[in-house]
Each structure stands twice: as C-alpha cells, then as structure tokens.
Specification:
3-stranded antiparallel sheet; globular; 8 strands; binds iron/sulfur cluster
Length: 159
C-alpha cells in the first residue's frame, strides 16, 4: 500500500459510485441493531443483502452521490456509507491517499468507463521508494543478524 500527501482525488471523480452495484449485508442498514446505512436509501436484495438505491439499475448511479461525475462530487452519507464503499479503491485518510495495485485497477475501470484518465501507481508512489528503501534496509539488517547468529551458532557447535 502506498501513500502520499494530497488532495482527495475522489472529490473530483465519483466514477465508482455510478458504475458498480453496491451490495452489502442487510445488517449494515439502520433497520438492524447497530446498523448505520440509511435503509431508505437502499433496496433489498433478498434474502440477505441490500443494494445502495440506484445501483440496481443500468446504468447505475447511487442515490447518495451528489454532483457531477468527473467534476465535483460528494457522498451525502459519507459517515454512514456501507462497507463496500469504505473498502473500495482509493482510500483517503487524514490527508493521505492509500491504494494498492489491485484497488487502483478497479478504480480505473470505473474511471475509464466515464472517460476519465486512469490513475498511474506512480502518482501515489512518493512514499514507495522510501518504503522500498526502508524494507530493503530492514531485510539487510535481518539478514545480517541471521548471519551473525548463524556464525555464533556454528562457532559454538564447532567449539
Ligand atoms: S473511482 Fe476511484 S478515484 Fe474515483 S471516486 Fe471511486 S475510488 Fe475515488
Ligand atoms: S454510498 Fe456514497 S460512497 Fe457509496 S456508492 Fe453511494 S455515493 Fe458512493
């Protein structure tokens, strides 16, 4: 997972909210104890699931999505959005973008369908080189530690 400090790219996109069916366990709706997704914005998908209303249609568009895809959008139930939305694509947390290659591929599928330019992983890789350097260093340190432990062990067994 890579990160960099940036503006939230989802605010000028919204493609995934108007491309995928958004299906989740009914227990996430506020009809269930502890549920939080407004049930009136969902449609049942029997026997156990609900869909965000609007994403059951073709073409899909979630009713909670406000604004124009590719320009300026917002989720009007952001704090109460279902788990697939929390887990999907680019994650933006405290001013940092978090994304994996697999997530970016799904994200780009929606963007391209909307005629938006796909994101490249390099756009989020400011941290990548730093992470790689630090993983490489820690691997080298670990390898060094293993080597020195082995040397001690072989010295002991030899002694
Ligand atoms: S398609 Fe990707 S960039 Fe666009 S809103 Fe969804 S997660 Fe964000
Ligand atoms: S609930 Fe919000 S984040 Fe999820 S699909 Fe709808 S608009 Fe997008």
């Amino acid at each position: 997972m890579w990160a960099r400090d940036t503006a939230n790219p989802c605010r000028t996109c919204g493609a995934c909210c108007a491309y995928f069916r958004v299906s989740f366990y009914w227990g996430e709706t506020d009809k269930a104890p502890g549920g939080y997704v407004p049930a009136e914005l969902t449609v049942p998908e029997p026997p156990f699931y609900h869909l965000m209303r609007g994403t059951e249609r073709i073409p899909p568009r979630c009713v909670a999505l406000e604004g124009e895809v590719g320009h300026a959008v917002r989720c009007r139930i952001y704090e109460r959005r279902p788990s697939p939305c929390r887990e999907f694509g680019i994650q933006w947390k405290s001013g940092r973008v978090m994304v994996t290659l697999e997530a970016l591929e799904r994200c780009n599928r929606a963007r391209v369908a909307w005629g938006l330019p796909p994101f490249k992983i390099e756009m989020f890789s400011t941290q990548l080189n730093r992470s790689l350097r630090s993983s490489r260093k820690s691997l080298q340190n670990r390898a060094g530690a293993v080597h020195s432990t082995r040397s001690k062990r072989s010295r002991r067994s030899a002694g």
